[in-house]
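Entry type: protein chain
Record version: 2
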Amino acid sequence: MAAHPLASPRHNAADLGAVLANANTTLRNASLLTALLHNTQQLPPMFVDSAENHRPALNIESSAAECGDQIPVVDLAPLRSCDPAARASLVSSIAIACEKFGFFQVVNHGVDHSLIERCEREAHAMFELPLDVKERVHRPPGTSFGYGANTWVNQTVMHWAESFHMQLHPTSNIRDFSQKLFSEGDPNKFSSTVEEYMAEIEKLARELLELLTEGLGLERDRFNHYVENERMMSMRFNLYPPCPQPELAIGLRAHTDPHLLTILHQDEVAGLQVQIDDEWITVKPRPDCFVVNIGDLFQVLSNTRYKSVLHRAAVNGTSKRLSLACFLNPPLSATVEAPQELITEERPQKYRPFTWLEYLSNAYKFHPATGGERHERFFLR
C-alpha cells in the first residue's frame, strides 16, 4: 500500500473544525497525527488548550513524589480463600472505595504479569508501524473501533495521543485488524495475545462485578445478566508520546466513562489523574496493579451509591506512556435501571430506565465536565 502524504504540522485553531468535519479519514488522521510524528520543538496550536484550568499538570522528573496514595489498593487474595469473613472485608473495602472515590486498584488479581508484558509489547509494535500501515484499520468518523486520534464531539483542542480500539464481544474484530496490520509478518502473534489478555481481564471484571454487587447489599449474581449473551467487551490502546510543550497540552481531557466497568493497566510512566474533592490526584503507576473505575452505568445501577468520577490523562516532555483500557458493558438492548431494593426515601430513584444503546448514542455528545449534561438527560422527571 502506498504511503499517504503527511499534512503540514502548521495548524491554527480554525483548522480543527475543518479537520474534524473531513469525511476522508485517511487525510484526517494524517492531519491530526502529523505533529506527533515530527520532532517539533513547538506545540502546534491545534493541540494547545487555551483554558489553563483544563490542562493536566505533571512534572515527570518529580512524578513519584507527586503521585498520591489516596486511591485505595485492594488485595484480591481473599477471593481464592474459603474464609467468609475475609470475603466480607474485601467487599466492604471495595464498596467504600467506590462510594468515596469511584476508583480503586487491585493486586493479586490473577492475571499473569508475563501476559500483561506481552500485550504491552504488541501494543508498542502496533503503534510503531508506519502511518500508512496503521491507516489500513483507520477509525471512520462516528464509529468506535480502529486506529486514530481521540476526537470527541464539540472538541476545541486535540488530544496529544494515538489510540487503537478493538472489540472481543459480541463479535470480535481483533483478527481482522491483525491481518491488515501485520500481513507481512505473523498476524496471529498480535491477535492471540490480545484475545488472551482480554479474556483474562473479562474474567477479572466478572469477579469484580459480583464483589461490587455484594457491596450494595444485593445477591452477588444480581447483575450477571448484563454480562452474559451479547455482552460488550472492548479494549483501547492509548499511546501518549513525549510532548514538546506538555504544560500546554492534554493527553485526554477530563471525562467520566459511560461504561459499566473500566479496568486499566498503565505502564511505569505517570499520567492518569482522578478528581477527588475538587483536587486532581495523579495515580501512582504500579506494574502489579490494575486500576478499576466505576462507569456511568454502574452509577445508575447503584442508584448513585457508587460514583462515576472525572479523570484525565497528562503528558510529559521526556517519556512516552502506554495504557491498556478494557471496558465491560451490557448488550445494546439491555435496560439499565436501579433495583427497587436500592430506592429509598433517603435515596430516591434518580434516573429513568434506558437502554445501553440509548445512553451510548448520547454519551459523547455532551461533555460531562461542563455541568453533567450526559447524566441530566436521563434524570427521572
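Comment: The domain at 13-56+72-376 is CATH 2.60.120.330 (Jelly Rolls).
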